[in-house]
Amino acid sequence: MREAGFEFTVVPPHGDESFPQAMPVSLVPKFLAEKKANGFLSGLKDEIVMTADTVVILENTILNKPADRDDAIRMLRQLSGKTHRVITAVCLLSTNKKDLFDDFTDVTFTNLTREEIEYYIDHHRPYDKAGSYGAQDWLGMIGIQRIEGSYFTVMGLPMHKVYTHLMRFVS
C-alpha cells in the first residue's frame, strides 16, 4: 500500500471468519471482507476502512488456513499438480459509503514431492495462509508453474483494483 502511495494504519479485525456453509464458495471472500469491515463501523469517524479476505478454491472446495502440520501437508498434496483458484475480496467502508469488489487468479502447481512439501511446512510454517502456502515463499518460487491473473491477488491484495477503487472512493 505504501509503495502505491497510500498512508495507513493497520488495525487487526475483530470477530471470527465463519460463513454460511451453504454459501457458494465464490461468494465467501466478499462475505468475509464485508463482515470484517462492518466490525469497524461503530467506531468510524472520518477514516476509510479497508478489509480483505482471500480464499483458495480447489474443485469447488475452500482450503482455509491449515489447523496443523498434517492439515497443511494434506492441502499441499491436494494442490500438487493441479490448478486452483484464488479469490481475494476487498471492502472499502466509510460512514457514508461502501465498495465491495473481488478479483480471481488461477494458480497451477507442479507435482510436488512429499519431501518438498514437508521442507516447506517445517521451514516456512504457512499456518496463517489460505491453502497452506504463500506465493512469495519458497514453495511459490519452486512450485508454481503458472499464474493466470494477478500475482498480487494471490498475495492477498489485488493492488491494481484497490488503487482504482480507492481513487474513486475518495473523489
Q: How widely separated are the two ends?
A: 18 Å
What is the CATH C-level name? Alpha Beta
Helix content: 25-40%
Output the helix-strand order.
Answer: HEEHEEHHEHH
> CATH fold name, please?
Maf protein
Order of strands across the biggest sheet?
2-1-3-4-5
Please identify the structural class as seen in this structure: alpha+beta
Largest sheet: 5 strands, antiparallel
In the CATH hierarchy, what is the architecture at level 2?
Alpha-Beta Complex
Portion of residues in beta strands equals: 15-25%
Query: Per the principal axes of the C-alpha atoms, what is the gross shape?
Result: globular
Describe this structure in words.
Helices cover 33% and strands 24% of the residues. The protein is an alpha+beta fold and 171 residues long. It has one domain: Maf protein (Alpha-Beta Complex). A five-stranded antiparallel β-sheet has the order 2-1-3-4-5, sandwiched between helices. The chain starts with 27 loop residues before the first helix and ends with a helix.
Task: Give the SSE layout.
Layout: H1 28-38, E1 49-58, E2 61-63, H2 69-79, E3 83-93, E4 98-109, H3 114-124, H4 138-143, E5 144-148, H5 151-155, H6 159-170
Antiparallel strand pairs: 1-2, 1-3, 3-4, 4-5
Helix pairs in contact: 2-3
